[in-house]
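Risk register update: the risk that structure generation would not scale has been downgraded. Supporting records follow, first protein first.
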Amino acid sequence: MISDKMKNALNEQIQLEGQASSLYLSMSVWCDQKGLEGCAQFLRRQSEEEREHMLRIFDYMSEVDVMALTPGIQEPEHDFPSIQELFKRVYAHEQKVSNSIYRLLQIALEENDYTTQHFLQWYVAEQKEEENLMRSILDKINLIGEGPMTLYYIDKEVAAINLLEEAAEEEVE
């Protein structure tokens, strides 16, 4: 059984993952409204992935016989100044999630909670991939620059990234 401190921290992570899912879904809707179908699909997939991350913690907590709490999710932002700013926020949010995972791992280390340490390693690797992906998208956005065709090319690049990510997931399954 894990400590109350770890249980509370894991429940906080559930909330953070749920908020990420909600935020990315909201961003997906914003993109869809702007005609950015590639970005909308990418962010919709990211939203589903964050929900899966949340459920993974629920399952782990059940396995170690502690109560996972279903989070109340705050209403996310619905309007963004630009697609560039939207992806900057996505990257910043992924960094926030990574730091939260590192905090969980630190608690597990301090408490000699080897089971939770092992469980969290998947999240460490996942967050490294997520941050790298979002940084890559921002790099492409910066390369594209600004101008009348910017949104078209950004959407096209993100759609291509989404297809690559989906193909990679299918290979794993």
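Supporting record for the second protein:
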Amino acid sequence: MLDAVILAGGSSSRFGSNKMLFPIDGTPMAVKVAHNMSELGSVLLIGASADDAKSISMDTYSGPKEGQGPLGALVDALDNSNAEFLLVSPCDTPFFEKQDFSQLVEALSSEFDVAVARDERNHWLLSCWRISTSLQHLEIMFSQGERAIHRAVVGLRIVEVQFSEGKTRNINTQIDLSN
């Protein structure tokens, strides 16, 4: 059983407008990401305003760690799920396609706690998590003051899944769309 979440809690300050609503090929960026995840599980926005979520016909969830960065959002999402696995994506990765998300899910064998997308670096927000083995660990790290996912995962069993930079790139500015 798998749930999927799209992290949409950032302010989009570098982008200049709400990037989750920005159209890519005529489709809001978050909807494009949701479409690429939807065959694998039910998709929920994390951190989006209710009005923004409603404008694109998606449900949103705001947990107790709202506004405390990506690790807080991840812990909230893991804690909110009743599934065995949680597939995670930021709202600004519209080029990570269905088959790419499937590769992450398939890589998460019983030997691992998290499957993370990698190009020249790990993309912790493009990942699939085994909730039963990762939630408690991340909650402890968060409660100890850690806010960086790459440091919070120390001690978890990680499998890196290689992708091209074109697949994993996120859109932080409108210039990023032309690259």
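Residues 89 and 115 are 12 Å apart (CA to CA). On this basis the risk owner (M.S.) recommends closing the item.
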